[in-house]
Design a protein that fits this description.
Blueprint: E1 8-10, H1 12-16, E2 22-33, E3 36-48, E4 53-66, E5 73-88, E6 107-109, E7 114-116, H2 118-128
Length: 146
Amino acid sequence: MRGGPLLEINVSQMLKAPVGTMQNLEIADLVSIMDNESKVEGEVMLTHTNRGILARGRLKAGAEASCCRCLKLFNCAVDFSFEEEYFPSTDILSGARLAGPEEPDSFTINGHHTLDLTEAIRQYALMALPMKPLCRPDCAGAGGGP
């Protein structure tokens, strides 16, 4: 599933602006995390760098997880920060294709100068999920306790 237009930002004006130009965004959209759509909310700051656009955010999301003790499905809330630089694939002034970034798994800005935060947010939300999620701190598990 793809995020909606709130996670897809046209940055053409930012790429024309001086390096250091910033834009603050409020995010509230759905992102597919662990095969379920989860609401993601928070704030993202975009900064024009000499190479592209740096996206930094502090977000909250909820993902359906299985309790490691009782195996019950529950909504696991996570808070996380992310920071990724997006590289243009097309020159903003000439329209010429640009060489890709040296880093193999880098995020890019498409030919229409749209930056899509969806995949970065999905990856960071997955990393923020606990290794052993608990439906509640005192969960005794399926057996009911000691």
